[in-house]
Write the structure tokens for this entry.
Amino acid sequence: MLQREVMLQHLRQHSPVIAPSMLKCDFGDLRNEVQKIDAAQLPLYHLDVMDGHFVPNLSYGPMVIERLRELTETPFDAHLMISEPGRYLDEYIKAGCEAITFHLEAVPEPTELLQEIRRQNVVSGLAINPDTPIEAAEPFLEHCDLLLIMSVKPGFGGQKFMPEVLPKVQRARQVAGERLIISVDGGVAAGTIGQCAAAGAGLFVAGSSIFDFDDYRQAADKMLAEVHACTETASQKEATQCRP
């Protein structure tokens, strides 16, 4: 299990990161799914934890993650779509999660929990729903290592990407600079991932756009090619605009 600074270095070294959303994997053949993900050299597992209360769906918890941890050394980011995430923090760290991301909507005053996550040498992540303005998260960004901007309503996979969240990505990058890892989750695929990258995101949670394909590496490479093309275009445009 990677300690916080090593985990942050890992994420930056592999940026842009495609993180498979395990909500969409085949839980009936989990061992094979892990083998395919690791064979594709995807650098992060995104673990969608739902409690049926904060979101209207149930998924899995620390016991499943602990067993998953036995199958791979690839780092885990637990996305806690749950009420009272602080109550269960130690369980997810013990299960082997190198990053813990919880929702601002569940913890409106998140500073203490973000600091506690860092005190336990784990990457601290804060998530915001599509309806939550970025201004609500700005006072807490200094305590975050990772900001997850939802581009669908949390709780279900396979939803359509909401482009109206992209200004939040841009604003977060402007406010926090390059230090902050900005992630987008929901409807991320070829055709949308480039927009997220151009706005300033560097970590992309991908569900159907990975698991609907036989070759996970090929699926990831297609999206990464779009990321590189769009960020290069954005950089050229910015350079042109900055010329005297």
About this structure: The chain has one domain: 4-242. Residues 4-242 form a domain with the TIM Barrel fold (CATH 3.20.20.70). The chain has ten helices and eight strands.
